[in-house]
Design brief:
- The protein has 4 helices and 5 strands, in the order ββββαβααα.
- With 136 residues, it is α+β, with helices and mostly antiparallel strands.
- The chain has a 5-stranded mixed sheet.
- Strand 1 and strand 2 form a beta hairpin.
- The longest helix is centred in the C-terminal third of the chain and has 15 residues.
Length: 136
């Protein structure tokens, strides 16, 4: 299946794009394309589109990408409503926990701290029991 999409060229942080017709299976960074049908520079807002060739390829069955579709509508090559483009946020990689515990961390000190709070509430209950009989 053929697709009309942008092919990035230019230096780092100075993008310019060729509007090309290519097979959908080719990667966007790949240099293989059937025909160049336009040019787009987002920094200077310069657009050059070959309307006849774009209409020919769309008549043959080529589908424009969402961004190219919106550019074609702005330039009046095709008519219709713009498509809403939603960019997916990349998930941040969560570092994995180490498989073995560090030698400095030992479970023995934690066990001693847990025993101390358990011993304190027991005498408090006994004092309440002793106070209750005195009140009678």
């Amino acid at each position: 299946m053929l697709v009309i999409r942008l092919f990035r060229t230019g230096k780092k942080k100075q993008p310019s794009y060729k509007v090309v017709v290519t097979d959908r299976n080719n990667p966007p960074q790949g240099g293989k394309f059937v025909e160049q049908v336009g040019f787009y520079n987002p920094l200077t807002r310069e657009k050059t589109l070959h309307n006849e060739r774009i209409n020919y390829w769309m008549g043959v069955g080529a589908q424009p990408s969402d961004t190219v579709y919106n550019i074609l509508i702005n330039e009046g090559v095709i008519k219709g409503e713009k498509k809403k483009i939603v960019f997916k946020k990349k998930k941040k990689a969560v570092p994995e926990a180490p498989a073995t515990p560090k030698p400095a961390e030992t479970p023995a000190p934690e066990a001693k701290t847990e025993e101390a709070p358990v011993a304190e509430p027991a005498p408090a209950e006994e004092t309440k029991a002793e106070e209750a009989p005195k009140a009678e």
